[in-house]
Design a protein that fits this description.
- It is globular, with a radius of gyration of 21 Å.
- It is built from 14 helices and 13 strands.
- The N and C termini lie far apart (42 Å).
- The chain is an alpha/beta fold and 390 residues long.
- Bound molecules: 4'-deoxy-4'-aminopyridoxal-5'-phosphate (PMP).
- The site of 4'-deoxy-4'-aminopyridoxal-5'-phosphate has 14 residues, from helix 5.
Length: 390
């Protein structure tokens, strides 16, 4: 039989699915895949359930239900002072995953270059390559993950069409500073390039506040801002995302979306519209609660000898295991899931090549009791490891 698509065949199953399957097989506590282990807000679930029963279950409009597009526009104004036309500047998608693919498809022709920042979320590279575009990788270094400005500037050239920016960032928990965003904005203007801004963790910033690149001077027309109801309302299974972009960009994103999924479940869209209209207090409590979980897991891991890196946003904390093990991150994660009963993700999964070898990502978007149980399991397994169990 003739070979299938080379890129997709080579890319394999995502590490998140692999680790979740291993976690299930070994009865491990899953701190690998980033999903909360609680239900989202009951009123949002109720709104979606009611919407299922009162009809309107046929195809939603291509760019999303009017009430959700209006809620996305209102949230942009409330949270960031961005004036957004719900008719022409919002596209609702099936999750941020589809939104990112649709944005990249809208921007890129084969041969165009895209600047990507490593470590990176695992869909970015395969999608860029699937579109025939050329990734230019710029690497952040632990423990500070500062933006290497000279390298970033050097990655831009005459063929650069876009940059893909993820802030707050998975897996590092980095929140790009206004200064770093300003530097990037300068490069985008200089090179007449666009930015796909993956801001799914916009409401999970623990110190200071989230600043969309789109809100910087001159960036309104260059940015495609992506949000996700999954992260904002702890409903990751719903897969409702939304793109905010100026009319000429949004129009082509809609064209891409038309060919990817065309429309997303209308009742979930109505639930999300209800959620986006929540009081500020909801969003503040979401971040405050997650910050407590971050502190709980970070402190607990540090007490066990992990070298825990600071995290300012997202669901994740990264820890260096070099002080605990001679094995690499993949070996250590395998040991953790099989022997300690705790699943995490080796950071090498977030690199194209030559990754750092002793960093591990833990998700803290779990109940307090679950994090405590995971720490207790590690506490009892680690000494056995020292005695040669590994
Ligand atoms: N971008 C990043 C950085 C993510 O971490 C995730 C989810 N893990 C997504 C996009 C995908 O979001 P969604 O579930 O809405 O497709």
């Amino acid at each position: 039989m003739r070979p299938l698509n080379t890129g997709l065949q080579r890319s394999g199953t995502t590490i998140f699915t692999v680790m979740s399957a291993l976690a299930a097989r070994h009865g491990a506590i899953n701190l690998g895949q980033g999903f909360p282990d609680t239900e989202g807000p009951a009123d949002i679930v109720q709104a979606a359930a009611a919407a299922l029963l009162d009809g309107r279950n046929q195809y939603a409009p291509l760019t999303g239900l009017e009430e959700l597009r209006e809620a996305v526009a209102a949230a942009n104004a409330r949270d960031y002072g961005l004036a957004v036309d719900p008719e022409r500047e919002v596209v609702v998608t099936s999750g941020a995953t589809e939104a990112i693919t649709a944005c990249l498809a809208a921007l890129l022709d084969p041969g165009d270059e895209v600047v990507l920042i490593e470590p990176l979320f695992d869909t970015y590279l395969p999608v860029v390559r699937m579109l025939g575009a050329v990734p230019r990788l710029v690497r952040l270094e632990p423990p500070g993950w500062a933006l290497p400005r000279a390298e970033l500037a050097a990655a831009f050239g005459p063929r650069t069409k876009a940059v893909l920016l993820n802030s707050p960032m998975n897996p590092t928990g980095k929140v790009f500073t206004p200064d770093e965003l300003g530097f990037l904005a300068g490069l985008l203007a200089e090179h007449d390039a666009y930015a796909v801004c993956d801001e799914v963790y916009e409401h999970l910033v623990f110190e200071g506040r989230h600043v969309p690149l789109m809100s910087l001077p001159g960036m309104r027309e260059r940015c495609l801002r992506v949000g996700s109801a999954g992260k904002t309302f702890s409903l990751t299974g719903w897969k409702i995302g939304y793109v905010t972009a100026s009319p000429p960009l949004a129009e082509v994103v809609a064209r891409a979306h038309q060919n990817l999924t065309f429309a997303s479940a209308p009742n979930l869209q109505r639930g999300v519209a209800h959620g986006l209209r929540k009081e500020r207090g909801y969003f503040a409590a979401l971040a405050a609660g997650m910050a407590e979980r971050r502190d709980q897991l970070s402190t607990g891991l540090a007490a066990l000898g992990f070298d825990v890196l600071p995290t300012a946003g997202s669901y994740f904390v990264v820890a260096d295991v070099a002080g605990l093990s001679d094995e690499d991150d993949v070996g250590f994660c395998r040991w953790m899931v099989e022997r300690a009963g705790v699943a995490a993700i080796p950071l090498s999964a977030f690199y194209d090549r030559a990754p750092p070898r002793s960093l591990v990502r833990f998700a803290f978007c779990k109940r307090e009791t679950v994090l405590d149980a995971a720490l207790a399991r590690l506490r009892s397994a680690l000494p056995e490891r020292d005695r040669g169990w590994g």
